[in-house]
Automatic annotation (TrEMBL):
<dbReference type="InterPro" id="IPR011074">
    <property type="entry name" value="CRAL/TRIO_N_dom"/>
</dbReference>
<dbReference type="InterPro" id="IPR036865">
    <property type="entry name" value="CRAL-TRIO_dom_sf"/>
</dbReference>
<feature type="domain" description="CRAL-TRIO">
    <location>
        <begin position="108"/>
        <end position="273"/>
    </location>
</feature>
<dbReference type="GO" id="GO:1902936">
    <property type="term" value="F:phosphatidylinositol bisphosphate binding"/>
</dbReference>
<dbReference type="InterPro" id="IPR036273">
    <property type="entry name" value="CRAL/TRIO_N_dom_sf"/>
</dbReference>
<dbReference type="Pfam" id="PF00650">
    <property type="entry name" value="CRAL_TRIO"/>
</dbReference>
<dbReference type="GO" id="GO:0016020">
    <property type="term" value="C:membrane"/>
</dbReference>
<dbReference type="InterPro" id="IPR001251">
    <property type="entry name" value="CRAL-TRIO_dom"/>
</dbReference>
<protein>
    <recommendedName>
        <fullName>CRAL-TRIO domain-containing protein</fullName>
    </recommendedName>
</protein>
Length: 301
């Protein structure tokens, strides 16, 4: 992390404790890092050293060069190739500079509305591969007159920035479930080509996290109108990771174990679902970390 904390943020939900997993990954996840990301002590050391030197040559970029964990955060999704990690750092901060109107003072305490509407949540558990599971409900639960798509985007950024703090998430990555149940024609009209391009640019080039799959569930026929806006901007790698399931739960379970999913997706997960307000309570304990995240980057244009 970029800030010091006396204790790790956590909240008690009955018998379950919701917390950020900032400790060392399990032996199984460490093995994934070794096999998929080339991660060994020597390669980590070399990668950190080389990326730090490359970033020193970026005169306009302010970043925490002496923070090894921050450097590893960008090296992991690039399999420890320093040149690729440098490009990712540039893209990450260039995107934030380009969309400064969205990123200005972006932290949990300023975004209570999106969490209050409870259309974004991260499941308290991981999937069978150790990945975080983000669920976005943009159908009947989304009151588009009260929550803008910009607010939805900000909420997603906050969740993924938090996931990027977790070593296990840096290695295993994350998956996203878009639940479009009840999507209306009025709601489809909220989507625009510029918004679609921003989302695709962000996912393809500017997120230092391995987004392994995007699952579309419960989508009505008019969702095709929405997807048509995104399609022109998708490169093959991301396009191949978008999977449409409709109401076919067996199709979804080919990718995500029912043990990892709540009942509404045909699963048998026993842990209660975490509400947006509960996640906000936890995220707000990291407000200072988000202040630190926001203090770095390129100068405003």
């Amino acid at each position: 992390m970029l800030t010091d904390m006396d204790q790790l943020p956590s909240i008690k939900l009955g018998d379950f404790t919701l917390e950020f997993e900032l400790g060392n990954p399990s032996v199984e996840i460490q093995e994934v890092a070794k096999k998929e990301l080339r991660e060994t002590p020597d390669i980590v050391k070399q990668g950190v050293t080389e990326l730090r030197e490359l970033l020193k040559a970026e005169p306009d970029l302010k970043c925490p060069l002496e923070n090894d964990a921050w450097l590893v955060r960008f090296l992991r999704p690039c399999k420890y190739y320093p040149d690729s990690a440098l490009k990712l750092v540039r893209n990450y901060y260039s995107f934030k500079q380009k969309h400064s109107n969205v990123y200005e003072s972006l932290k949990p305490s300023n975004e209570g509305n999106i969490f209050a509407h409870n259309i974004l949540t991260v499941l308290p558990n991981r999937d069978q591969h150790g990945r975080r599971i983000l669920i976005i409900e943009l159908g009947k639960k989304w009151k588009h007159n009260e929550v803008t798509l910009d607010e939805v985007f900000k909420g997603c950024v906050l969740y993924l920035e938090a996931a990027m703090l977790e070593p296990t998430s840096q290695i295993a990555g994350a998956i996203v479930i878009f639940d479009m149940d009840g999507l209306s024609l009025q709601q489809t009209m909220q989507f625009t080509p510029p918004f679609a391009k921003r989302i695709v640019d962000w996912l393809q080039d500017a997120v230092p996290l391995r987004i392994k799959n995007i699952h579309i569930v419960n989508q009505p026929y008019i969702f095709n109108m929405v997807f048509a806006l995104f399609k022109p901007f998708l490169r093959e790698k991301l396009k191949s990771r978008i999977i449409f399931h409709g109401k076919d739960r067996k199709s979804l379970h080919k990718y995500i174990s029912p043990k990892s999913l709540p009942e509404c997706y045909g699963g048998n997960l026993q842990i209660p679902r975490v509400t947006g307000k509960q996640w906000l309570e936890l995220l707000m304990m990291c407000d200072k970390e988000f202040d630190a995240i926001n203090s770095y980057g390129y100068p405003k244009k």
